[in-house]
Structures
1.
Amino acid sequence: MRFIDDFRNEELVATLALAIKHTMSKPWRIMEVCGGQTHTIVKHGLDQLLPYGLELVHGPGCPVCVTPAEKIDAAIKATSVHGAILCTFGDMMRVPGNTQDLLTAKAHGADVRTIYSPLEALSIARDNPSREVVFFAVGFETTAPANAMTVYRAKSEGLRNFSIISALVLVPPILRTLLDTARCDRVDAGSDNGVDGVLAAGHVCAVMGLREYHRLAESLRLPIVITGFEPVDILQGIFMCVQQLEAHQYRVENQYSRVVSAHGNTIAQRIVAEVFAATEAGWRDLGRVAASGLSLRDGYLDYDAELKLQLTADSLWSSHQRGLCRASAVLTGHIKPPQCSAFAKECTPMRPLGAPMVSSEGACAAYFNYRGGQVDGASQLSDLS
Amino acid sequence: MCLAVPGKVLDLDGSEPLMKTGRVAFGPVVKVVNFAYLPEAVPGDYVLVHVGFAMNIIDRSAAENTVRRILSLTSDLPCAREATPDTLRGSIVWSEI
Amino acid sequence: MAPVSSQICPRPVGSSSVIQMAHGSGGRSMHELLARLLPLLPGTVHQNVRHDGAIIPVGMWQNLAFTTDSYVVRPLFFPGGDIGKIAVNGTVNDLAMCGAQAKALSCSLIIEEGFCVATLERVMASMAEAARVAGVEIVTGDTKVIDGGSGGNLFINTAGIGAVSPGIAINPSRIVSGDAIIISGDIGRHAVAVMSARSDLTFTPPIESDSMPLTALVQALIEAQIPIHCLRDATRGGLASTLVELAESSGCGMAVVEKEIPVSTQVRGVCEILGLDPVYLANEGCLVAIVAADFAQSALKVMRTVASGERAQLIGVVTSDHPGMVMMSGQYGTKRTVPMLSGDQLPRIC
């Protein structure tokens, strides 16, 4: 398939892997932000092609992994509203809330439907005028436009039996928080969790453009390479990042120029801004971050399922504070999944303790599925340092 | 995050910008996609589709430049074709470690 | 932001007290359920439980293969097949995996009140045609009608018996290190055909289920005197779950090469769009044959002469390394483990 196979080419992959090896003069740690990138790296074993000393840190960019349990509780609560239909993406079905997950709710009789596009939720609402149809809107900036469009259309059509639970989140605020934290740890606590460079999520930038990232690179003094999702993209992103690091530079570079432009998709940005406003948001295992989520604006509150159906759950830290799971350490790049004591023991994709074990893009699930629980050599080596 | 797939626009339908749809071919698979966010696309374009929405036109010359840039690296590199996981990782000992 | 020192996460509730869809998906959940249920049937559980059918000795020289399977596919009709066709072929194939030729099938119908009679007739005609093609007779049956909500449901159970040729012993315990792993055709077509019938995905040309009887393929191997160590049709859970099952029950490792696994361009396209992995997609006319190493090429040659094995391919070898596990070498020479699917494969959006 065009633009897929081209960027999986073996020769290009081998060339880039060699180029990275020949460019490096010292070890570097690079964070790939997006779970889709983590998936590609682990599925294709790209880390096995990298030289010792180049460590990849898996970032927080898996919307399924960072959706707080309370939002899942709210979604489950929505299904108990008489006659309600809950629509969600497949990935969300197995993520545990505080008491159960959506698959279990479905097994107990809840009408939960997996959909491919948010627009399908709208059609379901049109086809079932006597039932409330709730769409569980998860995702980052990439998915926000599709979700915004459903609400925008519902309002313009005067659809009254449709509402959403918004668990939409934004990348730059969490990146700033995580990387600041990582830096503090490095200086103050002496634990070397510092990230030297960042591969930013290409599809987020395809919508939002590069503006925010210039600011981020400047204030964090880190090179940021906007990177695509195929093996060639990722290795080229790493190569460009290493080149900057070796030259003591920190600026934004665009590896994914075939898709990402400086300004992004301005129509999408406009509709998102029309429907949603930035708000403080809870991140699973990471806490609350200011202006890191999207909630419906005043003119669209009729479509807020949490208000409409009174789903508001208890506070974020209400229950289940204890456990073996170290998801937040994984999500902040402090440990690799196999370094968690519960990994592949108490915690498996069958019975996930934390969300990163659920989604196929979650770092823990990726390691479990493709590595059988082994830590890659690079991080073993860096553990010794 | 965000699985998005490139496909080729076959045809487009609808004049009202926010209702515009089109058929997109992903290899042999054809799917109807919403073009509200990409009204400038025309048949023959390759577009990136995410959850049923076309989001960006793929810039062919940028794609070719990307590949060309990588191929230009080969001249500086010894034996690129012999690269395997073993030869690539090698046994470099970093002075810092 | 909460301090990172709170590196703990909410612990969800454990396993479900009710049956979920994943318990029927052929993956890890189903195996755990079986492990819980089978001990409740003392005396009936023997070495055949991890095989597609039971082998029952009748007399000195003759063995009988016996199997049963229920069919609940939705929608009832999909490109390349329907519930009736797979109800025949599925059971015929389970017998074939024991090295048996199906002789007779039973057909038990569970029909929801309100179900359309004409549709039922269509399904029966399809069963009759499938039985004719597979060379098997439907000799007995049963019909039950249940209260239903929508009136749209039909479930079919078929059981089958077949004779196993003397001297044939096909089961996982015969798998040894060095054996060749062969797949009989390209994978994933059944799952994609059913998916396309459920969604708005269209294909040019349309993609059809691979549902077909595999008896001729197996008999060809037996007649050519290929030492078949094990056979398994890669149905629910796909090729990956089949290989993991065989690795676990044989105690050997399976090393497969990703690019040797045949996948049609259509199936690949769907996998790209939905973020699925073809090795987990269900098949209804595709088997994995484990044969003695020296006979790999002759087995391939024989299989490719039969219609259902035209696209047969050598995909890997059995090894004494990583016992009980499946390792796959990828496009770049890198390696990864292939686990059994934990539950249903869910389309990946994000």
2.
Amino acid sequence: MTAPLLSVRGLRKRFGGLVATDGVDLDVVEGEIHALIGPNGAGKTTLITQLFGELTHDEGAIRLSGEEIGALKTPQRVARGLARTFQINQLLPDFSMLDNVALAVQAHAGHSFRFFADARRDEGLRSRARQHLAAAGLSHRAETKVADLSHGEQKQLEFAIALACEPRLLLLDEPMAGLGHAESEQMVAMLSALKGRVTMLLVEHDMDAVFKLADRISVLVYGRVIATGTAEEIRDNPEVRTAYLGEGDA
Amino acid sequence: MTLVLEQLLNGLQFGVMLFLLAAGLTLIFGIMGVINLAHGSLYMVGAYGAAFVAAQTGSVVLAILGGLAAAAIAGMAMELVVLRRLYARDHLDQVLATFALILIFNQGVTILFGRQPLFVSVPPALNGSVQLLPGLAYPVYRLAIIAVGLLVALGLYLLINRTRIGMLVRAGATHREMVRALGVDIRLLYTAVFGLGALLAGLAGLMAGPILAVQVGMGEQILITTFVVVVIGGVGSIRGAFFGALIVGLVDTSLRAFLPGLLRHAMTGSEADALAAGLSSMGIYLLMAVVLLVRPKGLFPAHV
Amino acid sequence: MSDNTIERAAPAPLAIGTLLATLLLAAALIALPFAMQALGQPALVPLASRVLIYAVAAASLNLALGFGGMVSFGHAAFFGVGGYVVGILYQSYTGDEPFLGLIPGTDQLLITLPAAILVAGLLALVIGALSLRTSGVQFIMITLAFAQMLFFLFVSLKVYGGDDGMTIRRRNALFGLNTRDDATFYFICLAVAAVVFLLFWRIVRSRFGLVLAGIRQNERRMAAIGIAPYRYKLAAFVISGMGAGLAGALMANYMRFVSPDMLHWTKSGELMIMVILGGVGTLLGPLLGAAALVTLETVLTSWTEHWQLVLGPVLLLVVLFTQGGLNGLLARLRPGRSAR
């Protein structure tokens, strides 16, 4: 087996007395969809946030293709191939969908200290952005302002923006949360279509989706990874069962 | 040596005055999330209220009550009419609306009292000075200000850390929804906190009366210094306001006292004085810049 | 932010209507001195110059404040320093004594204006680099405090008049023009204002402008697509300071006088008032706002010395009850069209 794309070792984060991340070890290999599940409050979002550099960890190592990225700021990690979606949408509400995606394309294309040419008439940026919107099934509403979109559309837009960053590793924080049945199905379809091309770390509560998509699953409880394995292995793992039954969460 | 001690006391006295203003400003910001430029106007209203009552009645007690009442009433009215509408707005709206309040207060006071500064005499009971050390006589009135300031600081500490209201204030700063869920009328809490802040500003204003000239614009001058205090101490932190105020008070006073003498060693008298005046006015801002470089969130970045 | 901010959802091509309106405005501004002359009101020409100068200052502030979301309460510092550059260069020129013994003085507008822009820009770089380490309410207080510091600096500089300021006996020279003539000076201001507004119009729509607007809307999102906000904010702050310095240099020429008053914190407040009166984050808003404030001041001071007692409530009402200032009101009077 080749070296993992993402390798996390002994990651720890405390908030005062509370240990949010308690020595997490995690490997994500190139090409897989790796699901991260666990009861509420297990520290899944906190972990994603540390991997993405929005929160600094206290101890431990984060390596991307062998390079230690733990000291880098978020934009530098993005430049090295990380992208994420947010559970609570983080969008530019005054801008259109197309603007939102085009900005990500623009950011990926290099610095933005260009002061004169009209960026909205830059066909290079715009056409790339339209492709990403189309891939997320959003072409028909490209010119709609984000503030006027439904929750489901905003979730899809989050996804399209993340793709426009052309990541090697995509961190997905509950992409299905708050979606209706049909919308969830659509999201699952999009993720499977992408499988193999982009490596994904997927935090998700929807177990059907997780079992459908994930190559491997890690279970996070009280800030620790208690098990990693295939869907069957995780389903049959007694420790996982107690953790879940004990918490009464699924 | 006695000169140094005297200047230290002067710095302490300026510091506690700044604290009275900074405490209100930082509480109001910490709890309601509002930046109130008109906080200096409340200081001015307190000073004018006390000066007016003193001139009319000659009574010190009535003058104090008058100054406090004027500031508290002006503060509550300000909260009810204007600031209440600003809690959910962005800082730009808050700055401009409270800037408008400054214009209104300043012009209103000009119309009522004219442009000439009022002079207020020191209350007879606090007149004179005491011999602190051989060769160091210090005005009783200034010592009284220091005592009042320190007592208020102690009182605020107890209020915030030991009482139910204090608990609500601390909780209100971080968990607005939770406080609401406890069945507390958050609007009432806000008005009360604002009233407290206004009272402290008024207290500072009325105490400043006998030391400084009571005039239009006195509020803004001290307000900007108070901002420096709040930034150095850490926005939203009472403890930061206290130590920040003392630091700024001491630094500002000692620069003004000692810099001209130091510079005179290096250059001629008049040039030294002019340069020293400039440098000492700028001193606290430079201090702020240094603090920002080292600790961008201030010296005591606290939750309240 | 309301709907009439510049970055509307649909990137409509430059509409014929907008183009016509802009041409109409330009024609009106060019015709203004002649019209005033014809109407027998030549005294209004200097007033119009004043509006244009403040419009440049307010538009510059608006770049940081409206488009970048940086509530600077210290732009009077850049405005005032721009003015002092003109004053100091003029004093060195007439006294034939180089500034700091190095830089020769001058009375040439083509040198003083760029010099003012440069100095204000460097100052904005320093103040911005420090202030942008914070955000929100601290940023407001810190920019205010730095401006106050410079105010005290100039008060204490007796060489340059200290408290009393310094007089500039003649306006700067430009080619062979008679800059003393009100109409000539007006056209100089108009030309400068036109260039500044044109530049800002380009900047706001450029890659840089979109990034800036994105940072204003959601800094976390911008970081997540790989953009480090600090340097873009700093660049915008510097450009904004340069514009304010340019306006200050023009103002010094207009008044033939500079004093610490130009750096006073109330001047920062006035610039902010112009921005909000005209409409935050709109291109032509600052021009409207500057016109509104200068007009209000001129009309009211002829009635009462307590004109600020009227300005206060007006400002309060605008902040509390209008959305988007005058520009927003205009936009709502013309349904289906956006204010530009």
